[in-house]
Amino acid sequence: MTLPGGADDRAEGSGDGASADAREIADAVERLANLWSAAAQEAALRLSLHQLRALRALETAPELNLTGLAERLDIGLPTASRLCNRLEAAGMLERALHPGNRREVQLNLTGQGRRVLRDVAGRRTEALAGLLAAMAPAERSALVSGMKAVLKTPEQAPSRPPGAP
């Protein structure tokens, strides 16, 4: 990564092995994150990252309650409640009484919420496809293999390589 003063943090001897690879990957991930975010902001309806994450959580785990959503997003209940208020006002989620427990409120995506998620997913796929099309086939294949390997690793992988201080 090039630092503000023009210095490059990959100077000779600045690291090797997993640490050097991690720096290279971090730069690529940052570029992909920017591409991902920009594609989402081009959607018909602009949403914050938290709003998109909440809609995605509700898509993958329908009928969550507020506590479940807060836990999935790792945010506090008041923040989750305000987030849901905004999404409900925008017509993207609805609250309904749980059929088995009238004291519990379920959060459900609306048709509008699903349309927004499809729009964002489509734009992100197009942006990523454009990036991949510019790569050589062997590079693209290596990237796909590497990403599959990332998906196979446990989510709670150690934060430091074995034997690191």
Q: What would you note in describing this structure?
A:
By secondary structure, the protein is mainly alpha-helical. It has a domain at 41-135: Orthogonal Bundle (Arc Repressor Mutant, subunit A), CATH 1.10.10. The chain has 6 helices and 2 strands; from the N terminus they run H-H-H-H-E-E-H-H. The chain has a two-stranded antiparallel ribbon with strand order 1-2. Helix 1 crosses helix 5 and helix 3 crosses helix 4 (77-89). The protein is globular. It starts with 16 loop residues before the first helix and ends in a 13-residue tail after the last helix.
**How would you sum up the major sheet?**
2 strands, antiparallel
Instruction: Return Rg in Å.
Output: 20 Å
Name the helix and strand elements from N-terminus to C-terminus, one letter apiece: HHHHEEHH
Strand order of the largest sheet: 1-2
- Can you count the helices? 6
**Sequence stretches where pLDDT stays below 50 over 5 or more residues:** 1-13
Structural class: mainly alpha
Shape annotation: globular
Q: What is the terminal separation in angstroms?
A: 23 Å
CATH-scheme architecture of the domain at 41-135: Orthogonal Bundle
Helix content: 55-70%
Determine the strand fraction and express it as a percent band: 5-15%
- Looking at CATH, the homologous superfamily of the domain at 41-135 is Winged helix-like DNA-binding domain superfamily/Winged helix DNA-binding domain
Highest-level CATH class of the domain at 41-135: Mainly Alpha
Quote the CATH topology of the domain at 41-135: Arc Repressor Mutant, subunit A
User: How many β-strands, per DSSP?
Assistant: 2
Mean pLDDT: 84
